[in-house]
Amino acid sequence: MGKMEIGIIIAIMLLGFSTHNGKAEIYMVMIEGEPVISYKGGVIGFEATAVDSDSDEKIDVTSEAVTSYAHHLEKRHDMLLGMLFDRGTYKKVYSYRHLINGFAVHITPEQAEILRQAPGVKSVERDWKVRRLTTHTPQFLGLPTGVWPTGGGFDRAGEDIILGFVDSGIHPNHPSFSTHNSEPYGPVPKYRGKCEVNPDTKRDFCNGKIIGAQHFAEAAKAAGAFNPSIDFDSPLDGDGHGSHIAAIAAGNNGIPVRMHGFEFGRASGMAPRARIAVYKALYRLFGGFVADVVAAIDQAVHDGVDILNLSVGPNSPPATTKTTFLNPFDATLLSAVKAGVFVAQAAGNGGPFPKTLLSYSPWIASVAAAVDDRRYKNHLTLGNGKILAGLGLSPATLANRTYTMVAANDVLLDSSVVKYSPSDCQRPEVLNKNLVEGNILLCGYSFNFVIGTASIKKVSETARSLGAIGFVLAVENVSPGTKFDPVPVGIPGILIADVSKSMELIDYYNVSTPRDWTGRVKSFKAVGSIGDGLNPILHKSAPQVALFSSRGPNIRDYSFEDADILKPDILAPGSLIWAAWAPNGTDEANYVGEEFAMVSGTSMAAPHIAGIAALVKQKHPHWSPAAIKSALMTTSTTIDRAERPLQAQQYSGSETMTFVQATPFDYGSGHVNPRAALDPGLVFDAGYEDYLGFVCTVPGVDANEIRKFSHSPCNYTLGRPSNLNSPSIAISHLVGTQTVTRTVTNVAEEETYVITARMAPEIAIETNPPAMTLRPGASGKFTVTLTVRSVTGSYSFGEVLLKGSRRHKVRVPVVAMGYNR
């Protein structure tokens, strides 16, 4: 997949169980009793009701009842630990009070076993470790012309909406987050977060645009994984990823992207006036720990964020929880949604293979990554007239001139340095400057670029320091399907990614380069020139589903059984996204020391949705997270700019990349259409009780586990999980005939909707009623009946369309697999 992609792959990895007797580790402990978000009152001394448990409204965390109850929970955590263990034999890392009731503690496995047996303890889990999983995209999505003007222009887009980012921190002095050239930012009274002070500069991280900055590293410190000189014991971004994500969602508008003396356009966030609240829980070398991430989410919701962006997720379904939907991470997110927070989560970078999703639950928006219409291409012209296509985001060599080409292996200062793999041009001191100067340096693209420390940036620096006119990287032997991204460089440079084209280059060089009997070059005769790769080519074959983007079907448990919920939910740009970077960030070797980076991954797709959700929230401040998600999904598109069905990048038999027609397992409901999402006509709403009903009806789920989590008996009124009121329909095991019900709510003027459906011929589809008229704010039910006609052993795809008399179109994807029994 390429080193860049490996660096941003989103994962949560279960640590292997230690057999070391007595070795202390971090455990997450869940305790009986309501967290603040579900507290109804009634605990001794806490008669006042803190929150209506059946409501999904935000609660007043500043009320005396809530703060007293939160303090009461923390005292219970401390009391339990104090009763069981001697002082000094354990270290409590966090108390979780807001979204879940429990704590993280650093103890030995023997102590963990004692805790498991203690009355009132629901579960004791070893901590997970986590890793993190522009620009042109505002124009591609139509924001400057079709969306921002409706809210007062870019300088009002996202006004007073607070986006929370649980990531690697932020580079606060970046122009994407500056307030120098903007209207003054007023206070946001609803936000209760704080700004930590930078220990080096003694200044806090906030400026009005950034309104909150906190970091969470207690678990990392307790585990001995934290290095303050590298990881920064503050919200400062030591990685680059966090600054990039925040800028995509909410960076300032029109920021020039300058690198190596060239300008690559102007960057803007989706909601350039939105506020940024940073919750750093990911770090440079080791990623992070779930205990820290859950603490960050808990704090963000407590502080009052409106939208939460998560570019982290599990790398496999949990082995200890009966369902993917109630692992501790997703359970925390369910409580966040209960509090009224919209959550965008990256779907994962395990594509193009099926069942590689890392974002499972219906209460969050799982975002797949698309390639937009911008492509960077370049070419190398050889002295024999052949033109070789390649990638090179670089200036051209002088027009109408060719330059001598010299291979790194032929210009070594001393043959003894071969052990340093000189052909990858990472070490200028081993090459002869006299032979390289004024020429084009030929280098080899090895596995060291994919899984090692080599970078194209370093090749460029080597070539420049030796006085080369430019460089060529030839790919000879990396694995088929490796993903190559263009990298901006300041001198002419090109990567020949096609192995057969690299062979043509090498053959030409060898034929043109006479050698003596020892193999030493007598004279360099091969010549070439490098084209101009700075200007992108805009393609109509966009958007496309990116090769790396994780695919469905969704899974319901660790046995990889299919779930009756469609994932991913939506597709958004996630390939070659220009945005802010931290100069001290080390996540991408090609962008070390730079202010901007062009990175790919579903990590980059999620903040597009978070930022667009902020625009929807700004226009409709009282909509629930489910209503916002519905608006984004039902208005999305399944055709590209050339009005053809969306294509998905896929491997062909030889593992070269090809294109296939995309399905809902690639893109969910389709590619986001921000303008339409602001005015969807109808929404499919759902809340906390609906989601609990969904989990209760998932096959194989233990009702006791639900009771432990929700403190109430299972609600089976939904009947089947496929009846959850989501804007998609998925039936993984359709036998005979099944009918699902959906409820829509009119969020526009009175309108009559005609309901139709189409489906692949293996499955018959019918809808009822054929039409409905809804007044503003009114709701109506319709049913969709699916019947197996023939069993094929694969999924069939279709859609339900509600077409309004006022031109609203509401589209619902349908996926089903038919069985004989």
Structural class: alpha/beta
- Summarize the main sheet: 10 strands, mixed
Q: Which second-level CATH architecture of the largest domain applies?
A: 3-Layer(aba) Sandwich
- Count of DSSP H/I helices: 20
CATH superfamily of the largest domain: Peptidase S8/S53 domain
Protein name: Subtilisin-like protease SBT2.5
GO molecular function: serine-type endopeptidase activity
Domain Peptidase S8/S53: 158-644
Domain Subtilisin-like protease fibronectin type-III: 723-815
Can you describe this structure in just a few lines?
This protein has 821 residues and is of the alpha/beta class.
Structural write-up:
The chain is an alpha/beta fold and 821 residues long. It folds into four domains: 3-128, no CATH class; 131-180 and 190-367 and 548-679, Rossmann fold (3-Layer(aba) Sandwich); 377-535, Glucose Oxidase, domain 1 (3-Layer(bba) Sandwich); 688-819, Immunoglobulin-like (Sandwich). Helix content is 21%, strand content 26%. The strands form nine sheets. Strands 7, 8, 11, 13, 14, 15, 25, 26, 29 and 30 form a ten-stranded mixed beta sheet that branches. Strand 13, helix 10 (328-338) and strand 14 (342-346) form a beta-alpha-beta unit. The protein is globular, with a radius of gyration of 28 Å. Mean pLDDT is 86; it is low at 1-20 and 43-55.
